[in-house]
Amino acid sequence: MTCSTSSASSLDTSAQFQENNGQTQSTRWDEQQKVFALEQVCGVFRVDLGQMRSLRLFFSDEACTCGQLVVASRESQYKIFHFHHGGLDKLSEVFQQWKYCTETHLKDQQLTDEKTCMQFSIRRPKLPSSETHPEENTYKRLDVSAWLHHLNGSGQVEEEYKLQKAIFFGGIDISIRGEVWPFLLHYYSYESTSEEREALRLQKRKEYFEIQEKRLSMTPDEQKDFWRKVQFTVDKDVVRTDRSNQFFRGENNPNVETMRRILLNYAAFNPTIGYSQGMSDLVAPLLAEVLDESDTFWCFVGLMQNTIFISSPRDEDMEKQLMYLRELLRLMHPRFYQHLSSLGEDGLQMLFCHRWILLCFKREFPEAEALRMWEACWAHYQTDYFHLFICVAIVVIYGDDVIEQQLPTDQMLLHFSNLAMHMNGELVLRKARSLLYQFHLLPRIPCSLHDLCKLCGTGMWDSGFIPAVECSGHHPESESCPYGGLAEVSSPKPGSEGKRGLKTRDVFAFRK
């Protein structure tokens, strides 16, 4: 009986345990489902700080209260907390007191303690005065009043260089972008009068509709070929371009159809280039600001013809840009360049920045900040390649993780991709202007960067000083430097008299 009772009791206990265990598992399952639902619906997520690789705080306001907390796991998975209404400064204080957080001030510090692999750093939206352009904050945004001061009684821009400089530093007020952008994009000449511009608009509108009529008059075979090479891709792209923008929002929005016509007509106008993905990302902001279909078309033509800052469909164009960027990184951020070199050819291809260049930073920053960058580049102040200085600025400000953690190529791409829309565009612009200023002060430049300022005309060295060109020694198709650069003679070693070579100089040292 006792044994039986004991067995019954044991059986009851076992059954109760199984029931409780089942309830526990069910409860855990319910909790997991709730967490999953919160992640999907509200963007809520959990992070195991014991498994993280690094913490980064990016402040977005000058008071340093708002911004993002970026948590990176050891598997390069990123979670981002947004602080829109303050509080990030309080969290920063907590992390600074946490003994497992090692703030990475010293770039070359080797962290040997396993627990201190959880690195911690803060990025504030200000640059020290030593790292800013001396003319920073001297120009306000170009508004209607300032714009009219640049025009004479006939409507001509009196001093083109001063206007470009004002736009480079201050940008353009949104209310007059539609009027000023056509000048920057070479649709209007700076010397043209108001009457001449109106006559040009009428002439160009006629030409535009002639281009459209020619496209619509293609033979059936031509239409079939055009649909296969161009229209099929355009039709897919325009319906998903900038649809969050009020100008393109909603079903059957006529502005989407206008953008489609502009792109199709451009492909017919310039069949050599045709259409490549990314062009819709460039046309959309132009149309939203310029508004008129014909004017937007010709502004886009000017963008593609007269600026280097474009969505280039040719591999050789991209390779030239990457070559310049590699050289700039070698001069301005040698530690990052050394890391790229250590990764071999894959690293030097810099896949992480291809989208920056091809889409003109449009996917990396909110539209307001991206358009400010466009205007600074279109100003062609002191260089035709200011977008490459922006690329360097992004690397300088946000690339510490890559060096400190020796990220391979794929994780480096993931690192910068996860920063998209979470970087401070104004901070990047300020840093880029500072880097251009430092480049401007060099007494010598490598011949590999000789063409960096070839098209902008007066302005790169506007003080009358022109730097010497130093041969970098990489000219396989020529015995001498095609730019007239001279290779400095280094101190001869025994048995090496007469040999010429380059020696490293502090002249190419840049403030980070």
UniProtKB/TrEMBL annotation:
GO cellular component terms, A-Z: early endosome
Residues annotated as signal peptide: none
Limits of the Rab-GAP TBC domain: 171-381
Membrane-crossing residue ranges in chain numbering: none
Sequence ranges of Basic and acidic residues compositional bias: 496-505
Biased composition (Low complexity): 1-15
Keywords: GTPase activation
UniProt key word Transport: no
One family name in Pfam for this protein: RabGAP-TBC
Region feature (Disordered): 1-24, 486-505
SUPFAM superfamilies according to UniProt: Ypt/Rab-GAP domain of gyp1p
Gene3D superfamilies: putative rabgap domain of human tbc1 domain family member 14 like domains, Ypt/Rab-GAP domain of gyp1p, domain 3
A single GO molecular function term of this UniProt record: GTPase activator activity
UniProt KW Nucleotide-binding keyword: no
PANTHER family: TBC1 DOMAIN FAMILY MEMBER 16, TBC1 DOMAIN FAMILY MEMBER GTPASE-ACTIVATING PROTEIN
Name this polypeptide is given: TBC16 protein
Source organism of this protein record: Nyctibius grandis
Lineage start: Eukaryota, Metazoa, Chordata, Craniata, Vertebrata
GN (gene name): Tbc1d16
